[in-house]
Design goal:
250 residues, binds SN-glycerol-1-phosphate, 8 strands, eight-stranded parallel β-barrel, globular, alpha/beta
């Protein structure tokens, strides 16, 4: 239970965490070495690995390579049941609670349950909420679900409360990778005001200020993928902003 415990311990200390999302389809072995070094240098807390589509078949190699070149925990963030690697540190076991697609609420979990259990991975039950990011994202298309409207904070809040009462350990609010508009701080704070579970927030975060404001609003883990793919130097600004939150909030 190391990764979940680290979420809880950080939350108890009001320490915010920064996670870099790597899409296995978009990286070469050389990229992984460079990314791992950058992430280590700026004290990235977690590496999330996954994507809505996985076209390549080198997930195991990606994880093993990351594990070989850095000590940052690797957390699977799978777009489908095929994205499981026993070499990772944990698996976000996602149920798409913002949607009404039974396959993503429970169907695919049943199909892959025995294999996931056998992998020995730490499984973190995650209530996954897709929030409208201003334009259709891959996640809303592939999941065949309607995202929660961006201005309906109460729907997001009630969805998160329901997820937590159903036993989900973590809530992940996602505007979708590359979202035009990231999730608003007011929606994050509404959810955070009613939920004890750690809250992961991602989708369309492109600058340090937004990462910082999300943390102040109640996000516990900030995830950035796209913006870093475009500009690696952003990793430092984003990590520093997230890690500065408890100090400045005092
Ligand atoms: C997507 O939350 C992640 O599922 C990160 O989104 O790639 O837009 O940073 P970005």
């Amino acid at each position: 239970n190391n990764i979940y415990t680290s979420f809880i311990e950080r939350k108890a200390k009001k320490e915010k965490a920064f996670a870099v999302l790597i899409d296995p389809d978009k990286v070469t072995p050389a990229d992984i070495i460079e990314l791992a070094a950058k992430c280590t240098a700026v004290k990235v807390d977690y590496i999330f690995l996954g994507g809505s589509l996985v076209i390549s078949d080198h997930l195991d190699e990606c994880v093993q390579q990351l594990k070989a070149c850095c000590d940052i925990p690797v957390v699977l963030f799978p777009g489908s049941p095929s994205q499981v690697s026993k070499y990772a540190d944990a698996l976000l076991y996602l149920s798409v609670i913002s949607g009404r697609n039974p396959e993503l609420l429970i169907g695919q979990h049943v199909v892959s349950a025995a294999a996931v259990k056998k992998s020995g991975l730490e499984v973190i039950s995650t209530g996954y909420m897709v929030i409208d990011g201003g334009a259709p994202t891959t996640v809303s298309y592939i999941s065949n679900t309607t995202p929660i409207p961006a201005d309906k904070a109460d729907i997001a809040m009630c969805t998160a409360i329901a997820g937590e009462m159903l036993g989900m350990k973590v809530i992940y609010m996602d505007a979708g990778s590359g979202a035009r508009v990231p999730i608003t701080e007011s929606m994050i704070s509404r959810v955070a005001s009613q939920v004890q579970a750690p809250i992961i927030v991602g989708g369309g975060i492109r600058d340090a200020e937004k990462a910082y404001l999300n943390c102040k609003a109640g996000a516990d883990v900030i995830v950035v993928g796209n913006a870093i793919e475009k500009d690696l130097s952003l990793i430092k600004e984003l990590a520093d902003a997230v890690h500065s939150v408890p100090v400045k909030a005092r």
